[in-house]
């Protein structure tokens, strides 16, 4: 029942955003659904920030349990209880955010402008990030299995692979930020 209500709320939000966006009166041939893309990019940011902060116990920590929030005046200031891991939140929000941004991307018919090129670059980076994310999760599982079975050689090999993978995943995120900066600086004109 709770899931149904949440689904309905998201659908309403989505429909509202599309309607608001279509009211914007864009000219023929230009990208639409910019508001939806902004919402999608917002979800990606929240997904990254939540994982990053909870992983380091900075400001916010995440514990498994029935949903709830506890605040206190000392570190970590906010404790969020939830039925899923922060990685699942990272994974879900970044995938949904990417889909929303891609809905805006496919409405574009001209990729020759600087904004268009940055947009095309972001679309490619987003798809690569999602693929790389799933690969990273696979490596994580392999590491956990090797640790459980006490296979130290395999563990070492996968740990090196994870370090390299993480560098790649984070480098893509930085590239995305740069392209987003260029995109927002030029499409606003
Ligand atoms: C904060 C997020 C974003 C906002 C607010 C935004 C907004 C806009 C706006 C206002 C335009 C210009 C539309 C026009 O000239 O009529 C545009 C164009 C475009 N956007 Fe975005 N966008 C965002 C993110 C993205 C992302 C993530 C992608 C790629 C996945 C993307 C791809 C494109 C493309 C390809 C164009 C066409 C360029 C052009 O018409 O010159 N945008 N965007
Ligand atoms: C637009 C999409 C994405 C962006 C911008 C993004 C960005 C990031 C960033 C910046 C980190 C480093 C966080 C930190 O250590 O502070 C990270 C970690 C990670 N991401 Fe993503 N990510 C995206 C999509 C995904 C997806 C779809 C998955 C999984 C299916 C995923 C899996 C991971 C994993 C496993 C790590 C953790 C690495 C570790 O701590 O060992 N990512 N991501």
Word description of this protein:
With 189 residues, this protein is mainly alpha-helical. The chain has two domains: 76 residues, no CATH class; 79 residues. The chain has a three-stranded mixed beta sheet with strand order 1-3-2. Helix 2 runs antiparallel to helix 3 and helix 3 runs antiparallel to helix 4. The N and C termini lie far apart (45 Å). About 4% of the residues have low confidence. The protein binds protoporphyrin IX containing FE (HEM) (2 copies). One protoporphyrin IX containing FE binds next to helix 2, helix 3, helix 4 and helix 5. One protoporphyrin IX containing FE (HEM) binds next to helix 2, helix 3, helix 4 and helix 5.
The rounded Rg comes to 19 Å
Q: Tell me the major beta sheet.
A: 3 strands, mixed
**Spans with pLDDT under 50 lasting ≥5 residues?**
23-29
Bound molecules: protoporphyrin IX containing FE
Total helical segments: 5
Overall structural class, as computed from helix and strand content, comes to mainly alpha
- Order of H and E elements: HHEEEHHH
| Inertia-based shape | globular
Helix fraction by DSSP (H/I, runs of at least 4): over 70%
What number of domains? Answer: 2
What fraction of the residues are assigned to beta strands by DSSP? Answer: 5-15%
């Amino acid at each position: 029942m709770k899931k149904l209500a949440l689904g309905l709320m998201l659908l309403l939000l989505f429909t509202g955003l599309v309607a608001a966006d279509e009211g914007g009166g864009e000219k023929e041939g230009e990208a639409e659904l910019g508001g939806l893309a902004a919402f999608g990019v917002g979800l990606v940011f929240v997904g990254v920030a939540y994982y990053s902060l909870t992983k380091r116990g900075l400001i916010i920590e995440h514990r498994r349990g029935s949903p709830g929030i506890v605040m206190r005046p000392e570190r970590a200031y906010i404790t969020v209880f939830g039925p899923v891991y922060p990685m699942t939140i990272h994974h879900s929000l970044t995938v949904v955010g990417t889909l929303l941004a891609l809905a805006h991307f496919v409405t574009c018919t001209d990729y020759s402008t600087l904004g268009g090129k940055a947009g095309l670059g972001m679309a490619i980076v987003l798809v690569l990030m999602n693929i790389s994310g799933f690969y990273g999760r696979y490596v994580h599982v392999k590491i956990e299995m090797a640790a459980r079975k006490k296979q130290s050689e395999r563990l070492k090999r996968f740990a090196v692979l994870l370090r390299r993978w993480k560098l790649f995943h984070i480098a893509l995120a930085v590239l995305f930020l740069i392209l987003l900066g260029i995109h927002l600086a030029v499409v606003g004109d």
